[in-house]
Design a protein that fits this description.
single chain; 0% helix; five-stranded mixed beta sheet; rod-shaped; mainly beta
Length: 196
């Protein structure tokens, strides 16, 4: 929000409200609303700010016939978006079958957009064994990705994951997160008899 104070209304001069991101050039507020009769207004960013960090705010008033120009500065810090991590595997497979495990990292409201980064998935088991194996998703696409396991033993496996942000705009998630179970069954066998 902004306010022109100690002046004489209405404020008929030009008003400028700029934002300077952590890196890159400054840009004008695309949703600037100003009431010339009260001297108050707001800057609304419909799509939000895409990069975490400190933004500079600059307000300048060109002045009018009853008062001279004025300006002020401030800053606002945008934090990294919180996120949740979920996994899916289809629930069951057989020994020796390639199992694709999907991961999705979702930003939590009010944040929008997709998380960028990598995910490591860990399979533990089969229970009661604590043996582990891992697969990695090097780069999420629109917040999602998948990698594969091949399980060599029958039993129940616990799948969990961790997420590492690529740009700091989404908070990393230290594992274990998104834990699910996956069951591995015996493979079917076929017996053939022949005679000469």
């Amino acid at each position: 929000s902004l306010c022109l104070a100690c002046g004489v209304a209405p404020y008929s001069g030009d008003l400028y409200f700029d934002l300077t991101p952590p890196s890159g050039p400054a840009f004008a507020c695309p949703g600037l609303l100003f009431d010339a009769n009260t001297g108050s207004g707001t800057c609304t960013l419909v799509t939000g700010l895409a990069t975490a960090g400190a933004y500079g705010l600059g307000l300048s008033y060109a002045g009018d016939s009853t008062e001279g120009p004025g300006s002020d500065t401030d800053s606002v810090t945008v934090g990294a978006a919180s996120a949740s991590l979920s996994l899916s595997s289809g629930g069951s497979s057989v020994v020796g079958q390639s199992v694709s495990v999907s991961a999705r990292v979702s930003r939590l409201a009010p944040a929008t957009g997709f998380a960028a980064g990598s995910v490591q998935i860990t399979a533990t088991g089969p229970a009661p064994s604590s043996a582990t194996q891992t697969c990695a998703i090097a780069a999420l696409a629109s917040g999602a990705g998948s990698c594969s396991f091949t399980f060599s033993q029958v039993g129940s496996y616990s799948l969990s994951a961790s997420y590492t942000s690529a740009d700091g705009n989404t908070q990393s998630i230290a594992g274990p997160a998104g834990t699910i179970s996956h069951s591995v069954e015996r493979a079917l066998a076929t017996i053939r008899l022949g005679s000469e």
